[in-house]
Amino acid sequence: MKELIKVAAFSMLVLMLSPLLGFWIVALVGAGLVLLPVGAVVSTVFPNARKRIEDSLLHVKAPLPVA
Which of 19, 27, 51, 61 has the lowest tally of Cβ within 10 angstroms? Predict the structure, then answer.
């Protein structure tokens, strides 16, 4: 849990410095630093959620039209 707090604090620091260093690059890195641990926590708490999401995305009822 301490590591998650450190990652969140570092990502907030990155987001605060983003206007000085180039908004898009720093914001994307900060968002990645936040989303990766959040995804790890969600996948740990809900281990079957990933399988259900994959099944719903991969089993499309109507195929997409090919141009």
Answer: 61
